[in-house]
TrEMBL record:
It is found in: Mitochondrion. The keyword Mitochondrion applies. This is Uncharacterized protein. It holds the Pfam family ATP13. GO terms for cellular component: mitochondrion.
Amino acid sequence: MASRSKVLARSCLSGCSALVARAKPSRATRSVAPSGRRCLATHAETPIIRPHFADVHPPREKTELDKLLHAVQKKNSSKIRVAFIQWTDVLANQTSPLHAGAIEELLNVPAPTLSEIVRGLDPFNSSDDAAEGLKISAGETQYTATGKFVDVYGARDRQRQVLAGLQTLLRIRSSLVPFTLADYEIAMRSAGAAMDFHAAREFWGNIAESGLQQWRTTRAWNEFLKAFFMTEPLYYQFDRARVAVKARDLYRNRNPLDRITLEKLDRQRFSINALGQEPWNRSLAEMDKDVMRDLRKRVQDRGYRAHWRRGLLYGLDMNEELLCTSIKAFARSSSLHAIKELIFSSYYGIIIENDRDPTQTTITGGHDFPEDSPLRPTAALLEAIAEGCGAMSHIALGMQLVNFISHRYSIPIPHSVWSNLLNWTYLFASKPFGDARRKLGDWASATQRPVDVMHVWEAMTSPSHGNITPRFEDYDIYIKTLLVQRCVVKAFGAINDRCPWRRRPSARHTPPTKG
């Protein structure tokens, strides 16, 4: 230190350039005097404060919950479902090394945050489903790439995984803050999209177990009924054949069939089942039972009449949406009498007579409703009539009801109503539904043929019914029906007239004529 002081002093006396020396942490600091003369100065030791990093943790990898919350913040529905499934898989897997940490994170998630996560799983707001609105049959899953979208039961595989995740969340969070009523509604929608009506009933019971029984609303009851009776196209996987009332489903103890007819229907059913490789459209609990074997029941908890009484005893407000759901639910068991008496006669004052003979059917009456009445008919009622009557194969009655209500309440008939009637008519006019219905006997009200498809097409495109412009799916049914009727020339004419894009590739590949 002495040698350094001599050097610095000599530099100061000789007038050389200033030298600023850095002080060691344990030594005195040196500074330059404010005067023109440069010299050394000693001061008391001033400790230098340095930041300490002892309490700072190293950056950690993002957990599955972090990825899910990031997707929720970005409102990216395509990533929300993927992240949710990955997160709940860790929660359900007790052997995973991340299980304990994931459970601790879940228990610390606030209720509003959890509700926001559940809200992002609404199946009706799914924009990332590549198979949205696509009907996938059992044969298509065996021979095409669409089989990756569904499981062995024919339900959307993604929806089944989301439902399993929601059940895991409910099981873990049951001891803490339970789901809200809106969360349970979305959970019941997920159960319906996964074709699991047992899960829908479980969620409905959990509402009462969570102390929210007195807060049950008409909307929540309606969501439960939709999922339990598969009344929405999303719930029956956009495949009308899954919920169509077959001829074999009409057999009951109060309405028995003769032995020969019953054996014919059973042989047809066994032949169809023999070609199936997977439990397609079967119940999860009982794989030997088709879904419609439960839906067709009229008694006990599977019958809708008991649920109809329960809804009245709950004291819930009746509105058009609940009545529309009731029409579809009664149609699952082909309860046409209940639809006529309990809904149309009691709430709308519409009297339907002679429904077994379409040529003799009369529809009269109709209450007047104020503009703000929750029961006032709208286009939704026409949709429910087309869906309910179509599923029971009462196409003629459905068309008459749609026309009557449209004229009585001045409601324009939308394209979706006519398209729905056309699809149901084509389904029951084709095999195996048409053959099975004809084996029951010549029931004019419930037996469809290709000519009936053409009648619906003519009514759909007539100016008196709004002159509806058919879409591609409607033309597909129309052209296939023409081919069944051996009207090949007319079918090709429809293709050439309505599909101009077909002519352009043909003209491009046609060899030039020799001049």
